[in-house]
Design brief:
220 residues, mainly alpha, 2 domains, 65% helix
Length: 220
């Protein structure tokens, strides 16, 4: 019953007619605006809930279940768009809508990320997606495949201790050069979002501990 209901919602996506370059499709932009709000709804509550109840509390677990249910619906909508139209650029979706395609894919499971990764690479070459978004997805896919990330975009979170840490990173001494090449800010600046002070020597000392946490989190 649930699958039929989701499929029905999915088939109600507006039929899209494009009238040349440079014109935003308002119907599709509105769909993606709703998707973006739903994508952020529970994620924006997560930090406060962990602080208030603890990372292993029933409240946080419920929040994760709600987030996963909403993600499922969002992914059905976005993947339908990608399958039918390919990766649409800001000229069709607006900047926000174009970014929403990426964020929903970034929050999906590994098989779907692997499936659409080549499409995103092509979109970057064609100028319909941002190189920095591709770098973030490639980092996430690499980690889920048991490899190290390249641009240092992925941060781990130990919910038991509320500790944020840099996930395994290839050649940490030269990460800022790689980040600059795809339009990302220096790692020290980026990590301030999680109150992490970037110290490459400390990162190397912490690596054995963080690798254990990372492999447990990704079931590797």
């Amino acid at each position: 019953m649930r699958k039929r209901c989701l499929l029905s919602c999915f088939l109600l996506l507006p039929f899209i007619v494009f009238h040349g370059q440079g014109r935003v499709n308002d119907s599709l932009a509105r769909v993606l605006d709703t998707v973006a709000q739903d994508d952020e709804l529970y994620r924006n509550q997560l930090d406060e809930m962990v602080q208030r109840y603890g990372g292993e509390s029933k409240e946080v677990k419920m929040l994760f279940r709600q987030m996963q249910a909403k993600d499922s619906i969002n992914q059905m909508k976005v993947f339908a768009i990608l399958d039918k139209y390919g990766w649409l650029g800001p000229d069709v979706l607006g900047e926000e809508g174009n970014g929403t395609l990426f964020f929903v894919l970034q929050h999906s499971e590994l098989p779907m990320q692997v499936k659409y990764l080549p499409m995103l690479r092509t979109a970057v070459k064609n100028g319909t997606a941002k190189a920095r978004n591709l770098a973030l997805l490639e980092d996430r896919v690499a980690l889920r495949q048991g490899k190290k990330q390249i641009c240092g975009s992925q941060v781990g979170w130990d919910l038991r201790t509320n500790w944020h840490y840099m996930l395994p990173l290839e050649d940490p001494d030269h990460v800022d050069q790689r980040r600059a090449a795809v339009g990302l800010s220096p790692l020290s600046e980026y990590l301030q979002n999680w109150q992490i002070k970037w110290d490459v020597q400390q990162y190397k000392k912490d690596l054995p501990r963080t690798e254990v946490l990372y492999r447990a989190a990704f079931h590797l």
